[in-house]
């Protein structure tokens, strides 16, 4: 079986356990195949689909309809762990899709994203176990599909995908995780903290891979990375910083201090522009 066929099966699988097993098999296939010998079926037709394989539950709803994730109630805490589980489930599909779809890029790109898919599968399995110890399971709460929606919108261009998924959406996880971990530690749930530590460590590496290939594709196309990134943030109406910014983790993940300062400045200007437009519209 080629890696391309295996990735397609994993991506379209609707069973979480099967998707994890197939992702780990794909990583093993990569490990056992010598460099430049992966069968990526470069000439095959790549399927276009609105949704990757996912189970019937969790029910997908708009972000404002998701149950609130409170630390103070047992159900709210389970909903929080479920939300992390769902992010990890989507992250498996995102990584599989990058490896499956953008197969004309260097083989290292495929290997990087297959490895990430296997790591995301591991994260999902670990967090699902934590949820099960609370008496719940993946699918017990509703969830939103924001992460996969961005994958769908960027399916036609790997540069766009690298810019907006790892560098924007996944990088936000680096900002959010330390605060969440601190609250969970206060609750005394050390086992969940240990899972979050694994996730956090690996996610720095995932954002780093996204940064590497974003820079690579910009160089290939003769584009200036920072100027292009600012244009894309405006065009897609995205903000990269929300509240606390984890400068250290972002630097480890390949953002330079200069780039982070420029982006912070750019976002402040955009926010004041938006504020001024609203005021002008009201008058
Ligand atoms: Fe993850």
From TrEMBL:
This is DUF455 domain-containing protein. InterPro entries: DUF455, Ferritin-like_SF, UCP012318. PANTHER family: DUF455 DOMAIN-CONTAINING PROTEIN (PTHR42782:SF4), SI:CH73-314G15.3 (PTHR42782). It comes from Snodgrassella communis. It comes from the Bacteria. It holds the Pfam family DUF455.
């Amino acid at each position: 079986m080629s890696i391309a066929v295996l990735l397609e099966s994993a991506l379209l699988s609707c069973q979480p356990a099967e998707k994890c097993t197939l992702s780990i098999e794909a990583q093993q296939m990569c490990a056992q195949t010598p460099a430049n010998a992966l069968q990526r079926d470069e000439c095959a037709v790549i399927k276009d689909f609105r949704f990757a394989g996912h189970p019937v539950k969790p029910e997908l709803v708009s972000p404002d309809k998701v149950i609130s994730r409170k630390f103070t109630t047992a159900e709210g805490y389970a909903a929080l762990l479920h939300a992390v589980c769902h992010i990890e489930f989507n992250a498996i599909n995102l990584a599989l899709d990058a490896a499956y779809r953008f197969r004309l890029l260097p083989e290292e790109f495929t290997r990087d994203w297959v490895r990430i898919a296997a790591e995301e599968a591991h994260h999902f399995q670990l967090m699902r176990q934590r949820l099960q110890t609370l008496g719940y399971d993946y699918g017990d709460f509703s969830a939103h599909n924001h992460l996969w929606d961005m994958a769908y919108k960027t399916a036609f261009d790997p540069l766009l995908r690298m810019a907006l998924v790892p560098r924007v959406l996944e990088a936000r996880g680096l900002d959010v995780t330390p605060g969440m971990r601190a609250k969970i530690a206060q609750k005394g749930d050390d086992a969940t903290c240990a899972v979050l530590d694994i996730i956090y460590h690996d996610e720095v590496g995932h954002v780093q891979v996204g940064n590497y290939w974003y820079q690579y594709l910009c160089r290939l196309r003769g584009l200036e990375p920072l100027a292009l990134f600012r244009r894309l943030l405006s065009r897609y109406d995205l903000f990269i910083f929300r509240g606390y910014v984890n400068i250290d983790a972002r630097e480890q993940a390949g953002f330079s201090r200069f780039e982070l300062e420029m982006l912070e400045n750019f976002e402040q200007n955009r926010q004041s522009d938006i504020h001024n437009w609203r005021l002008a519209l009201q008058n």
